Every structure is written in structure tokens, then in C-alpha cells.
Amino acid sequence: MHNPEHSYKIIVMGGSAGSFSVVSGILSKLDPNFKIPIILSLHRLKHVRSGLSEGLSLNSKIKVVEPNDKEKIEPNRVYLAPSNYHMFIEIDGSIALSTEESHNHSRPSIDYTLMSAAYVYREKALGILLTGANKDGAKGLKSIADNRGYTIVQDPVTCDIDTMPKSALQLFCPDEILSPSEIVQFLNSLQP
Amino acid sequence: MQNSEGKMTYKEYLLVLKECSPYDFCEYSDNSIDRRIQKIMRDYHLTMDELIHKTRNDEAFVELVVEAITVNTTELFRDPPVWKFIRENVLPAFKNRPKINIWHAGCSTGQEVYSMMILLHEAGIFDKAEIYASDISKKALENAKKGAYKYSFNHNKYQENLNAAFADSVVPKITDFFEISKESDQLIIKPFLKTKTKFVRHDLVKQELPFYSKFDIIFCRNVLIYFNGGLQSRIVQCFHDNLFPGGVMVLGTHETLNGFFKTKFAKKGPVYSRTNTFHFKY
């Protein structure tokens, strides 16, 4: 279970269909001084390639950026995987991008981002999987759990489309199953 | 050459590859190379020992490894605003010049080579263009030469990209440049565009270039992201050396130059222009 003394170094959130409003809601209610960097790997609608970061920035209390390759991850910042790139976390705490083939028909692949976070941050990683219509992300979230990181799945009852959280729940038992408002509460409780 | 668990690491595998083939991936970034080698082992059901054995003894397999490591998927007019910028702000200057030399470094399966040729054609400067395209992967180059791409799923996206690249102008149709083959489910480049570009096999890690000419435009999109900082710098220096002053370098939309090169190139919109700054060697 969550140990309040346990400090997370990174938060990775993944989602697809319906996740824009959930993520936007979470970012609008976070403490503006929220320190832990948040990495977002969100599938985009095929024909809406751009505008996602602008959309999220509108209400976010924290700066949202689409990072460049090899950009250093800084506190108090949200990093959104750029359209049409996979996004990874490197061992030195920087972002790596790639245009290799799609994974689960997706680029960015949520699995890839989560797995790289699990590998680099181990028990210091917090993974959150939100609403979505694809099984991408389930394996990645499990890899966070396998590395003793903390895992949260959005409660399927509160999801627009519950394929993504349900795929994760079939694979393993996460630490928490929470509604979006409970996720916000949880995150804000991490602030010292 | 073994780690504490007695197993070879991916880095050590790259040394084996370097030793028994012409390929050197030692300066590729750890993250991408680890993942690619894991994928190869999964796809071919190999342990690390088996992978090493096959690499040492099977030349054809080495080529498959190279293809798997260097995969870089792209599309026609990927990132339309970049192409729009080139069309509006780079190409007009060449209307009154006798020649335009272009190099696509790491052209992969060639979609961007054809995207550029379409821009040149529409700008009326196609005939004075000299175009080279290079890649490390034999298979990718073969695909690039064929200029044949999957039709279903892609056709609409390609036309949309084209529309966006030619926004505020006369928009050509994909079918002006590609034949549609419903039987093979392919878009196939028309002959007048097919024979123009010289495709050459070339590994960017190796410094000597396969041509003498300098360039007005060098494309290298989403290739440097796979390299570590040192190799990136050497390659950008090579592009700098092989661009005419004022020549343009086009990188991927999320690739940037490190501090040292910021005086050697000026960022203009989404592209980099070689500056005329004088630099002492010592």
C-alpha cells in the first residue's frame, strides 16, 4: 500500500479515448506547486494531431510541454508525448523520442513510456492508467508494479470506454482503483 | 566481456556486431538499442548466446539485424507545416538560381524524398534539382527506389497532409504523382518522379561521403534521435561542412541542436540555416 514516506520521482499517465477531459480535469485541480514531473502518453484521434498540448495548457495549473528529444526532465512540469512519436525516459532522467513502428496500433505507445519509467525509476515510479479503447498501457502498468512502483487504474465505472483499465485489471491487481477526483486527491496528498 | 550475472549485455553485443560486420551501432543511444535488440531476440526466438552465434556466422541475418535496429517509419508530408514552410520560404530563392542540390540523409523508405520532389515540381524547379538519398538499410533503400506505399488507411491521410502543406495555394492531388493500384493495394510513384533521385547506400556513422557536391538543403529527419550526443555532434558538423553558406538543414520537429551548434546554424521557423560565422579551428 501507499506509504506516505515513499517519495515518487516520476508520474506517468496513459489514456486514449475520453482521456483528454479526464487529464485536463486532473491538471486543473493539482497544486500549482506540484513538484513531481508528470509524463503523459495519450493516444490522439487520427485526425486531430495538433492542439492537444494547447488544449491541456488552457486549464492546467502546471506548465505543459511537448518535449524535444534528449530534453532534461524538470520538476513542476507536464511532458506530453508529441504526436506520432513514442516517448521514453532515459536512465539519465531525460526524454527520448522515437519513430519506430506503432505498438498496439499506437504511437505514442503507453506501454513503451510506462516500461521505460519502470526500468529507470523502479519503486520511485507512479503509473496511472485512464479511460481508453485499447489494451495498450496494461503491460506497461504491470511492469511498474513488477518493479515495486505504485499503480493506479481509473475505476472502469467512471470511464467513457473501459477497455484500457479492464485490460490492466485482467493482467494484475493494481494498488488503487480510483475515480478521477480521487486521483486528484491522491496526487495532491503527495505534496509535502 | 560479461557482466556480474555472467550474461552479455546489449552494449557488448554491439561490439560483436562491430567486429564481424561493417556496422557500428556503439554510439546509438542506449534506450533505443536495448529495445531493438530485445525485439530481435523476441521476434527470432533467440537467446543472447544464439543471437551472437547467428551474428558471427550468418551474413544475411546481420542484414536483418541492421534493418530491425534502424527502422524509422514515416509518411508523405509528415508534419505538413514543415513542408509548407519550405515551399513558402526556402524554395522561392531557387527560382533564379541555376541549380539546387538536395541530400536526404537517412531517407528510410523514401516518403520524404517524394514529398520534396512534389514541392520542387509544383515550384517549377524540378528540372534543376540534383537529388541524393542515402540510408544504411538495403531493404529500406529498395523500398524507397520502388516508391510504392500501402494505399488503404494511408491515402486519405496523405491527401490531408498534402492539403495542409499546400494550404493558401493550389493544392495538387496525390493522384497527380502516384498511380493507385487497387489489386496490390498500393500507391505507386509515377515514372517522371521515379528516375530523378540517386539512391545510395551510406552509413552516417562513417565519415566519408559518397558524393563530391555540396548541398543547398539536407534533410535528416528523426534519425539523430537514435544517436548519443557525441555522434549527433559529428553528424551535424558533417552536414555543416557539406552545406553551402545559407544552406538549409531540416531535422525532425522534436530534434534540436546542442549549444555549440547554435552559432553555426540559425533557426528559421522549423528549419536550420547555415550561418556564415567565421570559426577558428584552433
Automatic annotation (TrEMBL), chain A:
Domain CheB-type methylesterase: 4-187
Top EC category: hydrolase
GO MF annotation terms: phosphorelay response regulator activity; protein-glutamate methylesterase activity
SUPFAM superfamilies to which the protein is assigned, alphabetical: Methylesterase CheB, C-terminal domain
Transmembrane segments: none
A single GO BP: chemotaxis
One Gene Ontology cellular component annotation held by this UniProt entry: cytoplasm
Pfam family, one: CheB_methylest
The keyword Hydrolase belongs to this UniProt entry's keyword annotation: yes
Enzyme Commission number(s) of this protein: 3.1.1.61
InterPro entries documented for this protein: CheB_C (IPR035909), Sig_transdc_resp-reg_Me-estase (IPR000673)
Keyword terms: Chemotaxis, Hydrolase
Signal peptide: none
Keyword Hydrolase: yes
Active-site residue list: S16, H43, D136
Catalytic activity: [protein]-L-glutamate 5-O-methyl ester + H2O = L-glutamyl-[protein] + methanol + H(+)
Protein known as: protein-glutamate methylesterase
Organism: Natronoflexus pectinivorans
Automatic annotation (TrEMBL), chain B:
Family annotation (SUPFAM superfamilies): S-adenosyl-L-methionine-dependent methyltransferases (SSF53335)
A GO molecular-function descriptor: S-adenosylmethionine-dependent methyltransferase activity
Residue span, CheR-type methyltransferase domain: 1-278
Domain of life: Bacteria
Keywords: Methyltransferase, Transferase
SMART domains: MeTrc
GO biological process, one term: methylation
Gene3D superfamilies: Vaccinia Virus protein VP39
Protein name: Chemotaxis protein methyltransferase CheR
InterPro entries given in the database record: Bact_Chemotaxis_MeTrfase, CheR_C, CheR_MeTrfase, SAM-dependent_MTases_sf
Species this protein is from: Natronoflexus pectinivorans
